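Hi R.,

Here are the chain sequences for the assembly we discussed:
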Amino acid sequence: MLRYAAGRVLAGIPTLLLVSIFIFSLAHVTPGDPAVLLAGDNATPAQVEEIRSRLHLDLPLWQQFGIWLGDALQFDLGNSIYSGKPVTELIAQRIEPTLVLSLVTLVLTVLIAVPLGAISAWKANSIVDRISMGVAVAGFSIPVFVIAYLLVYFFAVKMRLFPVQGYKWLADGWLTTLNSVTLPSIALAFVFSALIARVTRASVLDALGENYIRTARAKGLGPSRILFIHALKSVGVPVVTVIGIGLATLVGGVVVTESVFNIPGIGRLTVDAVTRRDYPVIQGVILFFSASLILINLLVDLSYAFIDPRIRE
Amino acid sequence: MPRNLIRALGLAVLVATASTASAEETLRLRMNGDVNVLDPISTTNFTIRNASYLMFDTLFAMDETYKVQPQMAEGAEVSDDGLVYTITLRDGLKFHDGSEVTAEDAVVSIKRWGAVDGLGKILFSKTKSIEARDDKTFVITLSEPWGLVLDALGKISSNVPVIMPAEQAAQPASEAVNNPIGSGPYKLLPDEWVPGSVVVLEKFEDYVPRDEPASLAAGGKVAHFDRVEIQYIPDTATAINALIAGEIDWIEEVPADMLMFFDGVETAKTVAAKQSGNSAQLVVNHLNPPFDNPKIRHALQLAVEQTPFMQAAFGDATDTYLECAAVFFCDTTYATDVNTDRVLKREPEAAKKLLEEAGYDGTPVTILHVTDIASQDNFYSVLEPMLKDAGFNVDVQPTDWATVATRRASKESVENGGWNVFFTGWGFVDQSNPMTNVYVSGDCDNAWFGWACSERLQELRKQFAVATSDEEKKKLATEMQEITHDLVSYVPLGQAFPSVGIATDLKGYIDGPVPFFWNLERVN
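And here is the predicted structure of the full complex:
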């Protein structure tokens, strides 16, 4: 198992390198010069040139990439062109909000989507099934920012139950943190649940047609035991796979949600860096996201072994 | 939802309410942009300027009648020949690190500012020497008389000549100071600063305000809050909701289509900021065809009119904008309607005739359509049909602001990365002053983007700098406008008065062209 995991981690390195080259090229071929943005309206061409040379932007692209890669291997992702702070420090400052938001969303999603999908499958084609799948389709179709604004309007502005925006750090108490990420997590979970509920329903539906379920019924087991213990257990692998894939799409959702709810997470950092052509930050966060996805995929693969004993053998 | 989770959420609400109660002395602001640096010399960015006023102080400052008053300075003595300015610092000035503010700090700070600022550069072109005489006094000796020395040092908008410790001010102006130290009413807390999210300042206990009442940037700057947080909330709708819910206290600009959010709201209101008006402009590149031909530039003036642009940006809120073709803003000292006929009237047929006379060969006008700034996006949608209607060929290239901000500096042909026209805006203080208005410099290669060239304009500006009587200044300004509208360094698109959003429990807000937050206090 350990060898398998180590192999997977090593296999991730070329992926990261390819992603780095791709992002580096993409960021640099996009028009827009960070030196000009940084210099401001009254700067002379000489001042702009000075900034360009200070940031190595005057070197050929391959040399710039070489410098960046060399530093990155020593965990130095450079300094932000925009704020002058080290990229590693900026990412470290932003990890907590994104991590908390993603985890709370994941927990909410699993709590909502898995039972919803299972019940829909159990009551397939009934009114319960249609309503819950209708909600799932709506969740997938309505843009996340629309859901976000509606939640803010009702629960924050009208009812004053949660804050409109902002993030409270864990250091100030986990309850205030939870309070500050509740609405953004619900908004994200709404979208995320739709995907997982549909997959759970399809998988459970398949499982319910299997012989061992018929046997369980014949033994006289109750419906909830059949559904949640026998059927659901066997659909763990596809559901966990979809949760893994969903986490990747969650990254996209986090970008929007963090903007609407003004959460200083990595998603916001990415968007801001792109609009400012802050190359070191763009490269840094993409590298971080890629590494995270590789890690998530690895965890998903490893979890198969725990969920399904046949894989262990 | 499990019962424990509901209980946890309920508790969390209680905790959140309690923390709001204890944070009463915090002022929370939302400016238009993010505060990435706190060095108003390294950039002209207005957000940085506004935030910097909280932590830095200036030698002189403009009062509400737009007259310059001493601020950190006790006063200035001017020699009879107008060449020597002796400036003395007032007592009790301290930097946030506890050290005294000295004349040497002031001299080095002014030199740094003079290397980048438009007015500062003029001052230094006329300065023979600037030296500290002792800890409290420094002397500026000019090579020729110039009546605007104190106006320059009391400049209210970018770049504001703020005073920093000499060692920080010794850094080149192109590099932002990293952990800036000011001497203003609020002190930066660097550890709590998260670029792209929040800047935190706390009341500087050792700050000694002047005795006079606050008047715009001048007078006593009394800090009533223990803490000021400048939050970067990129989404405007979120910021407005946060203001209404009492999570923040002030928003720099409420877009016209969101004014209705405040209907029936008791916790917050909007105030049309009359003094902080700004104007919209279409900047024209004189170097590239077709606008290298003056007649075709005149055709451009005839092709557009202001109202549709203002409607596109402000909708039905007609009291928030006005048609204005005055180069130095309407309702100001130098406002005039001379030579504005072509600018205000839209006459496509006359434009077509001019194009024919000028031998327009159909060279397309390349429009770099900025799509990521809402108001500008609307402007481009209005411009395109107007130009086509007047017989111009148009090539629209959708892009983002970062690209335009880079591309507008290019003097190349359009094919090689140059440009024809772009939209921008300038504020009231910058544009109403003939010395800082970028469109009347006529400075050719050294002019602002567009590089309009006129020796007469350069001459008029020189005369204005030494003019003493109001009558003479007005005459010069009027001629500047006449030439500018013939030259077409830009096409004015209207003047607007954006609204600020402010919590109703705040009093003492200073309505000015720059937002100031001293004097402001919460009434309970």
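Chain B touches chain A through 54 residues (CB under 8 Å). The longest strand of chain B covers residues 278-284.

Let me know if anything looks off.

Best,
T.
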